[in-house]
Each structure stands twice: as structure tokens, then as C-alpha cells.
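Hi C.,

You asked whether I'd gotten around to modeling the 246-residue construct. I have! Everything is below, sequence then structure, no commentary in between.
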Amino acid sequence: MQDTLGGDSFGVYRIDSGGRFARLMAASPQTESLFSKSALLENYANIITALDHGGLWVNRNLEPDLPMYAAGVHADGKLAVVIVLAKAQPDQMNLYFQNLFTIMCGLVESAMVRAFDYENVARQAMLVPGTEFLNTRAFLPKVLAANELKHDHMGDHLLLRVDDAWQDNGSRLMGAIRQTDEAGVLQDGNVYVLMNQAGKHELPIINKRLAQAGLHVTRVSGQEEDALLDEASEQVAAESHEGGTA
């Protein structure tokens, strides 16, 4: 989108299942500070109303603290993702650019909806039996993708090891994390939580929330995370090779 549209302040938000909050999933490099990591949708009623009606939000009145453009991705009839452009040049505030932005967001919507449909259908096969934890084969790509966004300065994340994750078959942990977070198992058999768009500044709040649920977590350092991902990638590759030759 940046290459085509020429903007450098894009953000992608995922709407939670309750429809109250939007969580930042990725942002243009070097412009993350423009975006709130979590937004209460009732504070953006005009934007959401426009997107719910299948339209495009354009900040024609140049209202401060609002994006210049926003478009929605709908899944199962509900707003699921919001794509925003925080800043726009004067020559981008025209009908040509609006149409181009709409077309690009439509292409993104098609890809995202296909991904949502696939994940919904395939999710049971991705889980550790009897839990809501993703198995290594399903969890690893999500952590790798988060790591890539971090290295490209398009996002941030925390990888936390949960010592007592198996309480109540994992339901206690799943009830304590956000919908945009993922819990899964890596090759060492431990349960990890991938906290998207969270960093060291949010860690005390996260620790407190999980501690209130009776859970103890340890932050995985960047070096340890890289080693875990390398080992997990090797394991998944070996399993895929064995499956292909069986």
C-alpha cells in the first residue's frame, strides 16, 4: 500500500469480538508513535458509522487526532479490521486518491477474509488436543511474523513463557489475554503467549493482570526468542520432510 499510494503512516487495527476495542496490529515504519495501541471505538463513532455502511472515512474537516483516511474490512457481516492513513499530503485529498485508497483496501479485504475463513475452518486441527493452545506448527508462523514486523519497525510484541498455563485446561490463561494475543506451545513443551503490539512499558500491567488470574509469566529475551524460533523452525521442517516421505 505504501509503494502504491505513497503514504508512510498506515496503521492496521483488529476489532475485538465484543466490538468495543480496536487493537493495533501493524504500522508503517518510524510512525508507530502516531497510533494508539488500543482504541475505544465509541470515541470514533463517526468513523465506525461510515465504515459500517461500507463507506470510506475521509477527514474533510481536518479534525485533529483523527486519521485522514480509514477503510474497513468486514467478515461475517461485522467490522473486523480498520485500515487507516494517519497523515495525507494536500494533493492526496482528492477523489482520485480516495478511489485508489478504496481499491487497495478492497484487495487487502479480499486477502484477509480468505485468511479468516481458512483459520476458522482449520483452527481445531491447529490446537493442542483438549486445549485452546495452538500447536507448534500453527503458533510458530505467528511468532515469526511478529518478529519480522518488529525487525522492520512496523510493530512490537512480547513473548511470555507461562509457568502454570495448564490450569483448568488452559481456560484460565485464555480468559486473561486479549483476543489479539495468541497462546501456543513451542518445541520445548512450554506454553507461550504472543502479546501483539505490547512492549516493555506495558509489561507491568500485563504481569499484574495475569497474576490476578493466578498465572506467573516470564518475558523471553530477544536472544532466547531467536534461539527458540530457530529450533522450532527446524522441528517443523523435519516433521514436514518426514510427512512428505512417508
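If it helps when you're writing up: The mean pLDDT is 86.

Thanks,
B.
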